[in-house]
Design brief:
InterPro entries: 4Fe4S_Fe-S-bd, 4Fe4S_Fe_S_CS, Hydrogenase_assoc-protein, NADH_UbQ_OxRdtase-like_20kDa, NiFe_Hase_small_N_sf. GO terms for molecular function: iron-sulfur cluster binding; metal ion binding; oxidoreductase activity. The protein is α/β, with parallel strands linked by helices and 245 residues long. The chain has 2 domains: 171 residues, NADH:ubiquinone oxidoreductase-like, 20kDa subunit (Rossmann fold), CATH 3.40.50; 54 residues, 2-Layer Sandwich (Alpha-Beta Plaits), CATH 3.30.70. The chain contains 10 helices and 9 strands. The strands form 3 sheets. It has a 5-stranded parallel beta sheet. The protein starts with a helix and ends in a 14-residue tail after the last helix. 37% of the residues are buried. Bound molecules: iron/sulfur cluster (3 copies). One iron/sulfur cluster binds next to α10.
């Protein structure tokens, strides 16, 4: 019960969190900072100790939770140094958004967001060997919704495992495109035609027509953010694999 213990600890009563930026558009950080208006009520239990947008801190302090947006560029020494420092100074790391969790537009160069020519190789932090076991949660989205980030922070403070478990699964998952919704839900006969995947898609790569009652997918505009599969009410159910006899 680490985080709860910490909050009850009178000498260090606040959960220290930081926000760190790798190769990204900063959209996830904007969504993260957006939640702070709603987060006023938890400011007595949380302290933002690092953010390149909001704090003047140059040195990275030791902290409880590092939220990281963006993919790691293998040709960028600054990124490699940051990852090494976070592996030593943070207790856990949370990947925020498709770039950090799955590679997103960085790795796949899609959605009309190609990387700079000198930067060719990107990996999500969930796949970095040095951070194995340290990246405990991944939050899908491009960017994730601010309310989702707020609720995630609350769940982290309360150690609400029911809420956190899907994010733990996402940190170990490589399933982050509309293809996975088709393969994991529709093709297995699990789709109930609710349309949530389509509503969650930031690029409309997943569309939904009432008359078809099933989603369809346009891979050319998918940014591999993982929102569709994560938001599908059928995707986390432990159904057995279908058999065709
Ligand atoms: S996941 Fe989307 S919003 Fe977040 S940094 Fe990547 S491109 Fe930007
Ligand atoms: S289909 Fe849409 S929601 Fe699903 S991964 Fe692609 S961009 Fe994200
Ligand atoms: S969210 Fe899941 S169940 Fe709903 S339409 Fe999409 S694939 Fe089907």
């Amino acid at each position: 019960m680490f985080f709860k213990d910490k909050i009850l600890n009178e000498e260090e009563p606040k959960l220290s969190i930081g926000f760190f930026h790798l190769s990204s558009c900063s959209g996830c950080q904007v969504a993260f900072l957006d939640m702070f208006e709603a987060a006023v009520e938890i400011l007595d239990t949380v302290k933002l100790v690092y953010s390149n947008m909001l704090t003047r801190q140059k040195e990275i302090p030791y902290l409880d939770v590092a939220f990281v947006e963006g993919a790691l560029c293998l040709e960028e020494q600054h990124h490699l140094n940051l990852i090494r420092e976070l592996s030593e100074k943070s207790k856990i790391i949370v990947a925020i958004g498709g770039c950090s969790s799955f590679g997103g537009v960085r790795r796949f160069s899609c959605g009309n967001q190609p990387p700079q020519p000198q930067h060719q190789s990107f990996v999500p932090i969930t796949e970095v060997e040095l951070l194995k076991g340290k990246v405990k949660y991944a939050i899908p989205g491009c960017p994730p919704n601010s309310s989702l980030l707020y609720n995630f922070l609350l769940a982290l403070l309360e150690l609400n495992d029911d809420f956190l478990q899907p994010f733990e699964i996402m940190a170990l998952s490589k399933k982050a495109s509309g293809f996975d919704v088709i393969a994991e839900v529709v093709n297995k006969g699990l789709c109930v035609g609710c349309g949530t995947c389509s509503a969650a898609c930031p690029t409309r790569a997943i569309s939904f027509k009432i008359e078809c009652a099933k989603p369809s997918f346009n891979p050319s505009i998918c940014v591999h953010c993982g929102s569709c599969l994560a938001s599908c009410p059928q995707s986390f159910k432990p159904y057995p694999q279908p058999t065709y006899t």
